[in-house]
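# nightly structure sweep
# worker-07 picked up a monomer target from the shared queue
# config: single-sequence mode, recycle default, output format = C-alpha cells
# input follows
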Amino acid sequence: MIDLCGMDSGNWKKWVYIWLWAGFIMILFQIFLGGVTRLTGSGLSITKWDIVTGIKYPFSESEWDIHFNLYKKTPQYLKINSGINLTEFKYIFFWEYFHRLWARLMGFVFVIPFLIFLLKRVLSKSLIIDLLVVILLASLVASLGWIMVASGLVNRPWVNAYKLSFHLLAAVALLSYLLWTIWKYRISGSSFTMIQSSFTYGMIVLIPIMLIIQVGLGGVMAGMKAALVAPTWPDINGVWIPEEIKSIGNYSDYLFNEYELNASSGIIMHFLHRGLAYVIALLSLILFVLSYKLGDLRVFRNSFIIFILVIMQLILGVLTILGSVGQIPIWFAVSHQLLGIGLYSMSIYNLFGVKRSF
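# output follows
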C-alpha cells in the first residue's frame, strides 16, 4: 500500500526503526554529558529550572551577571568555589547548559516524528503504549534530575550522592526500556533462542542484574568522589579488607547521611564496587564458556562481546582509580561510566533474545 506521500509501509517501518535508534543514541550521549557535568563540578551552576526560557544561552554581560550572582548564593560557591571568576563560571555553566539543552533537543526529536507517525498511522497499538512508557520514564528522569540538583542548593556544596545514583538509574531504565521497544519492533517472536539449560539461562539473567546494581554503586561512588580516598589498586590503601568493612555497622551514619565528613563511606563504596566488579568478571567468563557449549552463534557472539567489554571496563576502572590522586581524571572516569552503560545495554540485549525452554 502506498500512502499520501508515496511511501510504502516498509519504508515507514524503516524510518520508525531509525528514529528509535536515534533516540537510544541520544540518551546514551545524554548520560555521557551527565558524567562530564558531574566531574567538572558544573551541575549546580544553573540554579533555576526554566523549561522554556532556559533554552536561551546568556551572551550579554548583564545576563551573565544575573546567572553568576545567583550562583554566588549557592553553598557550592560559598564553600568551594568562592574564588572563581566569571570566565571560570562560564566554563562550568556551559556543561550544565549543554546537558539541559540536549534533554530539550531529545524531546523535539521524539515528539515531532512521533506525531508524524501517529498521523500516518504507521505505529501499532503496542508500540504506542511502549512509547508512552518511554515518555513517562523520560519525565521521571527529568524530575529526579531537578531533585538531585536541588539537593545541592540548600546546605551541601554538591548534590546528594544517592539522589545522583537514582537519577542515573532512572536514565538507564529509560535506555533499557527503549532498547526493549526496539527489539520488539524489529524482531519477531520466532527469532528467540530457546535455552534448555536453566543454569545457562540463569547466568544470562543474572549478569544484567549484577550490572545494574554495579551502575548504582558507581553512581554513589561518583557522588561521594570516593576515588579520591583510595587511589590504589589492587589493594585499598594498603589493605585487602579495610577496617571499615570489618565493622561496617559503626559507619552507617557516615555512609548514608553525612558521608562527606568521613572518608570511611568512600572506603566502603570502594570495597563494594570493586568486589562486585570481580564477581561480574567471573560471571561473564562462565557465560562465555557456557555459550560456546550452547552452540548458538548469536548468544555466543553476544557473550563474547560482554566478556571483552567487562575486561575493558575493569581496565578503565583501574586507570580511573590510579589517576585519582588529588583530582579525578575526567575522561577516564567518563569513559568508564559510558562503557559501563554500553556493557549493561549489551547484556540486556542478549537477554531479550533468549527464552527458557521448559
